[in-house]
Amino acid sequence: MSTRIWLDPTASGGHRTARRIDVEPGRFFTRVTLDRDNYVYTARQQGRGAEAELRPGFADAVKKCVDAASDYLWVHGYAGGFVHSPGPGTISMSVPFPLADQAAEALRAAEMDGDLTGLEALTEAVTVPLDEWLQPGERQLRQGVDFTSAPSAFLQFLRARARARGLRLNGRAEPGAVWVHPTMPPEAAELRDRYPDRFGHYPDPALYAQPADDDGGPLRPYVGARSERPSRDATPVVFLQPQSASLSSEQCPCGFPGAETDDNNAGHLQGHMRWSTGVLIPRNLTWYGGHIAVVNATSPVGWRKLAYGCALLPRRENHYDFPSFAVGDGEPAEDNARAYLYRSGRRVVGFVSVFDTAHARWYPRPMETSEGVVQPTDGQLRPTVNVIFTAGIWRRRGVAQELVRAIATDADVAVSEVAWHTPFSDAGRGLATRMAPDGAWLA
Ligand SMILES: [Zn+2]
User: Fold this and answer.
1) Ion ligand 1, residue ranges at CB < 5 A
2) What pLDDT score does 214 carry?
3) Which of 33, 45, 151, 276 has the smallest count of CB within 10 Å of its CB?
4) Using an 8 Å Cβ cutoff, are 361 and 421 in contact?
């Protein structure tokens, strides 16, 4: 059964601004979510944004805990993925059932008191002994003792974790157990040597040096250690760096931080897939007919969550610190905040968040809001493009223009009357220039 814990006294602003922790048991684990969306949003509206920042060290401590808990759940039978939003609006963790209360209390203490010891203790409780499992030498790990997932799934998990440490996991799954024999390939040792800043976390190659041959110990099953022979006379592959700075940077275009070097890139793979192909529409939402759905603050919660999921994509790509559409609590929004979702098949591939404002000012081309030049406002209420996003592989096909036209049609105004919230992203400026060639209303 789900439980909800309110963190702020409701007297000060009521539910609309209060922080809460939701504890939701699922089939494989319990999801514990600290929801501070409305709290942060309200604080920023009131110019108290700094107060609503996450406590120092909180985000790091949560990331460590989330990573450790994911490993734990995989080792103990869960085979799927995880969706965790990185905050500062929402912080969520998936933890084993018995640790749900501990996790809720750890989040509460970190949020309210800046006390991270609970998160650290939780991390310790769920950390699996990877160091031990990936030590040099050969060993058997037993199902029901060391792990509970299927041996083949466990072996796959170990391989991925070994790879992240520069190790090759020679291994074999058998009923009820896996055999492993981690070794370090010479390439990995060389990487560690040449690029200590990126590969310094690889273990000392000397530890993994092959012993001189069998010392007559007990016979062990062959675990598939590949012989060096097939590559003995091979010439090494040469690696080159691209010259363009934007290509050689570590940053993936989807905006996922540290994507290239992150050992645990499952999060990036999922995030990248959504960024490039769009957000899957949940089966329980029925999308009638047309390609564009309008979601506002009073829409059913499933739709508001879908719009929020879409808003996370431009947030990450453009490094905004806050998503442009909040799930909210179902109360109407004062500025008629809404989102238009563009669908292709079972995915939302275009998203725009919109609000109404009477404060837009007309700027002729090139639409610079240069300081000192204050244009007049006519006091007209206009729909205003806040953040607009198209999934990577759908770009340059007119999806964003279609969304802006839908905004205009919906508000019964000409496209040129739609206002744009500034500052522009590069793509946003290009779109506005194409759609409003003579100048535009900027808010
Ligand atoms: Zn990416």
Assistant:
1) 252, 254, 256, 259, 272
2) 47
3) 45
4) no
